[in-house]
Design a protein that fits this description.
Blueprint: H1 11-20, E1 23-29, E2 32-36, E3 41-46, E4 49-55, E5 58-64, E6 68-71, H2 73-78, H3 92-102, H4 106-115, H5 120-127
């Protein structure tokens, strides 16, 4: 369909076509890439192969490697990003946002956030 033969496109020809379309592809030398997921895990890629594709100002990163999985929530409490009030995982910044928005005390804001599993909008609605 695209030029006969079973081998696909020649890599050099592919690069020429991409360049004509304004797409630049480069390699990025990285020692480690960490992806933090919303469920509290980290995917850690040691010495990954990274390709950066720039298509008219929009950059896309491709990470190739074999990641290790580790729990990211343990480090957050140690770093001081979250207050450990009876095992609370609610960041202080979220408590301040809800308290400032509603005029409630920080304890009331934290209670509302805990009751809504950290949902800022639901916590504000609960206190208004």
């Amino acid at each position: 369909m695209f030029g006969g033969g079973g081998g696909g496109l020649d890599p050099r020809k592919m690069q020429q076509m991409m360049k004509q379309m304004g797409i630049d592809v480069d390699e990025l030398d990285a020692e480690e890439v960490v992806i933090r997921t919303s469920d509290g895990e980290e995917l850690v890629f040691d010495s990954p192969d990274i390709t950066v594709m720039d298509a008219r100002g929009q950059q896309t990163y491709q990470v190739v490697g074999d990641p290790e999985t580790r729990d990211s929530t343990a480090g957050a409490v140690e770093s001081g990003d979250e207050e450990d009030a009876g095992g609370s995982d609610i960041p202080d910044s979220d408590v301040e946002i809800v308290a400032g928005r509603t005029g409630a005390s920080e304890d009331e804001a934290r209670d509302a956030l805990e009751a809504t599993d950290g949902d800022l909008a639901a916590a504000v609605e609960r206190l208004e």
